[in-house]
Amino acid sequence: MVIIIGGASHTGKTLLAQKLMERYKYPYLSIDHLKMGLIRSGKTRLNPYSDGCDLTAYLWPIVREMIKTVIENRQNLIVEGCYIPYFYLDFPEEYLKEIKCFYLAMTKRYIEEHFTEIKEYADEIEMRLDDSYYTMEEALDENEHVYWYTHDWNADVIWIDGEYNVFEEAVRRIEETMM
Question: Concatenated DSSP letters for 113-176?
Answer without folding.
Answer: HHHHHHHHGGGSSS--S--TT--HHHHHHHHHHHHHHHHHHT--EEEE-SS--HHHHHHHHHHH
